[in-house]
Amino acid sequence: MSLSRLLPVRCAAALALSFLLTPVVLPPALAQEHPDAPAKSAPAPDAKDAKTDALPPLPADASVAQTVTVGGRTLHYTATVGIIPVYSRLDPAKPETKTGEVVVTSYLLDGAGDRMDRPVTFAMNGGPGASSVYLNLGAIGPKHIQFAEQGDSPSDPARLTDNPGTWLPFSDMVFIDPIGTGFSRSLVSAADTRKLFYSTTPDIEYLSRVIYDWLVKNGRLQSRKYLIGESYGGYRGPRVTHYLQAQLGVAMNGVVLVSPYLNPWIEGNGEISPLPWMMSLPSIAAAHLEREHQLTPEHMADVIAYTRGEYATDLMAGRSNPEATPRIIRKVTDMTGLDPAFVKHSGGRIEIGAYLREVHREKGEIGSVYDSNVTSPDPFPFSPDQDSNDPILESIIAPTTTAMVDWVTRVVGWKTTARYNALSYDVGENWDRDRVLERGSTHDLREAVAADPKLRVLIAHGWDDLSCPFMGSVLTVDELPAAMVEAGGDPTRVAVHEYPGGHMFYTRHDSQAAFGKDVEAMFAAH
Questions:
Q1: Pairwise CA distance, residues 215 & 220, whole Å
Q2: Of 357, 391, 425, which residue sits at a domain end?
Q3: Which residues in the chain show pLDDT less than 50?
Q4: What is the DSSP secondary structure assignment for residue 128, as one 8-state letter?
Q5: For residues 306-323, b (16+ Cβ closer than 10 Å) or e, as one string?
Q6: Judgement on whether residues 325 and 185 belong to the same structural domain of the protein
């Protein structure tokens, strides 16, 4: 799920930061002021950009007893929606003041005995600008709603069911909505909001503090602690882990990165480097194999071997070897099932946006950057560029928003009329595109792993994802120093796992089940 016109930074070789960046044209950005803020009685004395101190208060924490049936076993748990306040020093000469309110949703298993023996997992999505609803109701929370699959409609009934893939059997869970997403909000001016919350490093620092404060508030500092981040949340994951470890004195036991925006530097330059095309080709080939009902780990191993070997060599050869480009064209045509003329004119270098329009053109459909086999009719088929929103992005906002708001306000009883942002265009448009972001988070990943020989990292991808292609993580992990990874005697403690599906591969039952087993095994290793 990404927005175009927001951050023109790409996930490895792809075109998007998930949940907020796509190579498509989107509607105009939403108003920058909070939609629920009443008119201010008087402007701030020295600024047009006034503090949002007129916002109505959010409710006190609310809890409800719930049950979920998983594998024939009924689990009783307590769901809580509440606020972690954020304090900042706006003036160096003055004390800290409350500058934001982060709304978190937690699920704690009842009757779990000593809470110190019970792991707790913190979850956040990406964008920047996405709430945690996608991991919550789509992947690992105790309740589930169907979305992001072929044939799903925004007007389908948004009814929650028990989630067979929930992590509740082996971990409590806390879902964090960063400022500007969900019901979380800034309490300061737009200028201060950008400085405190919509900037790369401050984002890491306040979210890390939210985790710390939740642990203290709930008496869980001694519990085993895990973090899961999806997409841009996968960028946050290593940096939050390292900041907690090195600055706040809280060590994570494990990190799960789902379709992460991890290492943009690996993309290189598409004119002279083979890396951008190496990132996208395996996912395009995977989508073709799936359409042919031949998607298997064995076939994907062949795809990866070709990409790292002959494809890379021939791309680098350029015109120094007259046979290289024709050989690429023949092989890529066979691997992708695309029109030979299209592959020829692209030189076997398949640009993602062009591919998404070409692959289903004969049916008048366009593919999603998050899973190119999920399509919708192209409303502008004769436009030279894609003028429509992404098929998956367009269909997920209504069901996830409806389901989450209904559950929070009606079931939990956390009554508010504030707007809920499942995906905020405003956050993405106002995000500070700094060089720290461009560097990615592999630097922090290396430091955190090197400092703690017991820290485990699981990186999970869907084969069909073109927003954050799996090949980027494969190459990144393969370049980690062996002595660092193997410290503690386990060479698999930093691993990449791939599953059928796209960016949100967990919306497929079999992939969600396989992913859950892999994660549970990681937890069991501790």
A1: 5
A2: 391
A3: 1-50, 52
A4: T
A5: bbbeebbebbebeeeeee
A6: no
